[in-house]
Amino acid sequence: MKDNLGREINYLRISVTQRCNFRCAYCSVGYPDENELSPAEIAVFARAFARAGIKKIRLTGGEPLVRDDITEIAFAVKEAASPEIIAVTTNGYLLEKKAQDLKKAGVGAVNISVDTLDRECFRRMTGKDALEAVTAGLEKALETGFERVKINTVLIRGVNDDGAERLLCLAKKYPVDVRFIELMPTESGGENKLVTSAELLSRFPFLCPSYERDGAAVYYRADGFRGRVGFISPVSKKFCGSCNRIRLLSNGAVKPCLGQNDVYDLRKLLPDEERLYSEICSVIQKKPAGHHFEDPSGKLSSMNKIGG
Length: 308
Ligand code: SAM
Ligand code: SF4
Fold this sequence. Notes:
CATH superfamily: Aldolase class I
CATH topology: TIM Barrel
Order of helices and strands: EHEHEHEHHEHHEHEEEEEEHH
Bound molecules: S-adenosylmethionine, iron/sulfur cluster
Largest sheet: 12 strands, mixed
Radius of gyration: 18 Å
Shape: globular
Number of helices: 10
CATH class: Alpha Beta
Oligomer: single chain
Structural class: alpha/beta
CATH architecture: Alpha-Beta Barrel
């Protein structure tokens, strides 16, 4: 369905939890709200969203794989909404254990967040000595045969930006796209630590534009690389004019824009799918024009709460 600005809204991101087994300083803050939707409740939402035109669904969080019922959620979403693709965004820590069950449940694509390949820096950034487990998760995902496996990286000036080239070379070693996402300012901080996509590109002159895009990512290629290198630039080149997303939060609130604080509590309508469908259509019409990161009062909630 189109929103009131003519944008086709067909991509739903479901944050299934605010909980996480990592503590990335730029992402998580405070204590999570554990008032999580059950797989059956998520399924009712997914069916109503599908009627409103949603074709792609991503499960995110917090860390979605900390939910013991994550495969049940994926399966329930597949049965209820039959989306063209179900994707998962994960920190990869539990992926080695859960990859096969996720694939069997209908997950077709996995994005793994890796911000550094230096073990000590990884421990400092996430609060866990887990680089080895995450690498094992990535290799397991590739072996499992998902349609797509991607790496997402956020660079923070003075923290991990000196490791950008090693990360980029994951696209040489493995058949994966590596995407650099600009750091967005949130209540967890982030000001003055942004490394823009333009700055990064100037560091790697061997990258050639491929003129391929996928959602918000613009892709480059390099000789001898098996995957592509992507840049997602929500801060330096905002893409709100072509945004196709809407979010369901772990507590049943619907959030039409990542960058604005408006949320609509639709959990109270469960299990009435007709009312849910009609309210979802009305929230889509209220989707704001875009974010205002340039305004200091335009800061986001922490990403673990809203599903980055
Ligand atoms: N735990 C999972 C993970 O780490 O992939 C899924 C949730 S996490 C919130 C999703 C993505 O949001 C991660 O790639 C993370 O790096 C990104 N993220 C978190 N805070 C961010 C921020 N302030 N700016 C840009 N991306 C951010
Ligand atoms: Fe957890 Fe992902 Fe946020 Fe890191 S980025 S704290 S792994 S939710």
